[in-house]
Amino acid sequence: MSVSTERNVKRAPFKGDHVGSFLRPERLKQARAKQERGEITEQELRNIEDEEIIKLVEKQKEAGLKAVTDGDFRRSWWHFDFLEGLDGVEGFEAERGLKFDGVETKARGIKVTGKVGFTDHDMIEHFRFLKKNAGDAVAKLTIPSPNMLLFRAEREEGIYESDEALVDDLIAAYQGFIQKIYEEGCRYLQLDDTSWTTFFSEEGRTSIEEKGKNPEEVAELCARAINEAIANRPADMLITMHICRGNFRSTFMTSGSYEALSETIFGGLDVDGLFLEFDDERSGGFEPLRHVRRPDLSIVLGLITSKFGDLEDPERVKARILEASDYVAMDQLCLSPQCGFASTEEGNEITEQQQWGKVRHVVNIADEVWNEG
User: Fold this and answer.
1) Which CATH class is domain 5-370?
2) Considering the entire predicted model, what is its pTM?
3) Which string of DSSP letters, residue by residue, matches 60-82?
């Protein structure tokens, strides 16, 4: 799919962009805790969320961002909250949380309890509020990739006989959501996906084989889920994907180069842009980018870490952008943090001041590299 004139005008993803989630303000954390204890109503919590999101939007614009999100301020998790809103999917309190590098999340899981579909979703209203308050900035919505249900959800017996059957319904559900969110004015949608990183290491591929599945066939199914879910999007709607190796309290879940699946990711997905982690050695080098053959595919280099507060040497960042341009044309490249600042409500081990310093660092370096100041 070629980039339309409308997409070129919007220029998203922008040269200095961001993944989407931000640290929850203390006021919001306290309000959520009070609501869980029954001390305030859901509407009172909603009012505080509204006020904090309005403040966040202004902070993003003041930092120089051209696209703004609601920071995931209404979510506990970057993926579960959305997936639980689909028909046939329910959340539950799991026996234990997800394991990261030395830490573990709170216990939570999702389960497929019926046929997956889309009827309505809370995040339609969430986006409506963001769009109303975005002003002259582009309102960007982030949701988990359909592959996250395939990889993260347990399934009740007797509902789906195969992964393929589940993916068929997932595709239809996402198509319905995408059409609805488009009608609400969304022109910049991002799919967040940690499933691809399972294929980056021998350990990850072995974990797929231990379930009696072929990694190559699973990767093909994941690519189909993405491509068919977005196939019917209108010409003026841009859809990107963020590929992540895990982000919880400044830790990670997996490591590995894009090389093992580079032809599929860079040559087989019909997204308009890819947000990629390149903030440390866990992600490998830029060589896999040689498989980018579409001149209309934006590559957003996640060279600024969201995990720690120290600012990267700007000259080193510029040098790495230049290295990446050996494989992808400079006008196709962009810059961002490698992930959000709070993939879950707990957030990374970084202060709000450091967070905004990182955002401004991205914008300033991008302005210098691409002369957008």
Assistant:
1) alpha beta
2) 0.91
3) HHHTT-SEE--TTTT-SBSSHHH
